[in-house]
Design goal:
Strand content: under 5%
Radius of gyration: 13 Å
Order of helices and strands: HHHHH
Shape: globular
Distance between the termini: 20 Å
Structural class: mainly alpha
Number of strands: 0
Largest sheet: none
């Protein structure tokens, strides 16, 4: 999948699929661990760690990163703000509940 052109929702689908494949292959998931660690750091650490987490999700797509941080002017959109918060919070759950990564996020951040 071309990470630079996919939507944020498709990127989350990809991450969840990758976690599932890693779990099936090794019994654990480095991707889930990385997201969980970055999510906890984003919540507790401040702006720099928030950006680091969102970079994992954006995967090199500058417009997605601008929407996720947000530096695109969408910080006034209450629904997008809630979706960003849920995205970070959902990631902290790790391997056990990775299928909830998109919960209360799906599609909201793509437009």
């Amino acid at each position: 999948m071309d990470e630079a052109t996919q939507t944020i929702q498709l990127r989350l689908d990809y991450l969840m699929e990758k976690i599932e494949q890693e779990k099936a292959s090794t019994g654990s998931s480095q991707t889930a661990f990385d997201l969980q660690t970055a999510g906890v750091n984003a919540i507790l650490g401040g702006t720099g760690q928030w950006c680091d987490f969102m970079k994992l999700v954006a995967a090199g797509n500058a417009s997605h990163l601008a929407r996720l941080i947000p530096s695109d002017g969408s910080q006034v959109d209450e629904n997008k703000q809630k979706a960003r918060a849920y995205l970070v919070a959902n990631a902290t759950c790790g391997t056990g509940t990775y299928k909830k990564l998109k919960q209360t996020v799906s599609g909201i951040l793509d437009y």
